[in-house]
Design a protein that fits this description.
14 helices; 8-stranded parallel β-barrel
Length: 328
């Protein structure tokens, strides 16, 4: 079983990258073992980690995650080698297939055969990061990393979960209801067996959206976030696989009709409350512990301040949230 870990998500909306420094340093001092970046419409997945490598001494640093379509495998290998060197061996490369929204609509690339693309990229990276020639073109890093780079694979449904556990060093999951952890872990265990690995040998990471403050205001923000994500095809299919098709149907229909306000209203409260970490700090830590008990080995905590639209969020606000959610 991997060591129990506690991670900070470095996607801190509203803050500039220099403003991350005090928060990252405070997180390490408070006992956070990891920092994992995100990459959607904000900062890229690597820049915050380059800075964090200079700001920290022992934290594991990982991309959570970057996708295998918008960067070629050679470029990913170069990023990984550089960050492993900069962090003195503390880097993990988290990769995933992303979604048609990011790959096709935002970047104008075809989103096709995502599992094959992930498998091929892993094979390329294993060879390249070991200093060998990789791919049909024979790419070779001029300066391979001084130590192996663990590869973590993002996954939602059965086949990708099994592939992640079979070929990766860890599995990164997201928007996971507590009631569905067992179903996801079951697929991971199957993938471990397919890869001739010990059961429970995979690091299982999950990002958690932690909203403190007034419960109804927190629920309102969670409704908007859920509607925006769960209507993206890959996430819609994920929730249908978990058995929530009827619960999300009215919301998805309203979203497709471009009635965003109605879609948010129709977002299923019970499901949202099973995904988002809402309440005071003690209640949030208790709920995170429930996920750990069911098999999440690295909770990735994303503190989300409640603020009026357009209101700047200060580093002090984030600092207080990070401190309140520090591991026991």
């Amino acid at each position: 079983m991997p060591d129990r870990r506690w991670a900070l998500s470095l996607e801190l909306p509203g803050l500039s990258l220099p403003e991350h420094e005090s928060i990252v340093r405070a997180a390490e001092a408070a006992g956070y073992t990891d920092a994992w970046s995100g990459e959607t419409g904000g900062h890229d997945g690597f820049s915050s980690l380059v800075l964090a490598a200079a700001w920290t001494e022992s934290m594991r640093l990982g991309t959570g995650v970057v996708n295998v379509f918008t960067r070629g495998p050679a470029v990913l290998a170069q990023h990984a080698a550089a960050l492993q060197e900069a962090s003195r061996g503390r880097f993990c490369l988290g990769i995933g297939s992303s979604s048609n929204v990011i790959v096709e609509r935002w970047n104008g690339m075809e989103f096709a055969r995502p599992r094959t693309r992930v498998r091929d990229t892993i094979a390329f990276l294993r060879a390249a990061l070991a200093g060998e020639r990789a791919g049909s073109g024979g790419f070779k890093l001029e300066q391979p990393p001084p130590s192996p780079v663990p590869i973590v694979v993002a996954a939602l449904r059965e086949r990708m979960l099994r592939t992640a556990a079979e070929l990766g060093d860890g599995v990164f999951v997201n928007f996971l209801p507590l009631a569905s952890v067992d179903a996801v872990i079951e697929q991971i265990r199957t993938g471990e067996a397919e890869g001739s690995k010990e059961p429970g040998s995979s690091d299982v990471l999950c990002r958690f959206f932690c909203i403190q403050g007034d419960p109804e205001a927190a629920l309102g923000l969670a409704r908007w976030m859920f509607a925006a994500y769960a209507t993206v095809p890959v996430y819609e299919q994920f929730f249908r696989w978990l058995g929530y098709g009827e619960a999300i149907d009215p919301m998805v229909e309203a979203w497709r009709e471009r009635d965003r306000a109605r879609a948010v209203e129709l977002a299923p409260r019970e499901l949202i409350e099973d995904i988002f970490i809402i309440g005071d700090a003690a209640a949030q830590r208790e709920r995170l512990a429930a996920y750990v008990e069911r098999g999440i080995t690295t909770p990735v905590v994303m503190p989300i301040p409640l603020a009026a639209p357009g209101t700047p969020v200060s580093p002090d606000t984030y600092g207080q949230l990070v401190e309140s959610l520090a591991p026991s």
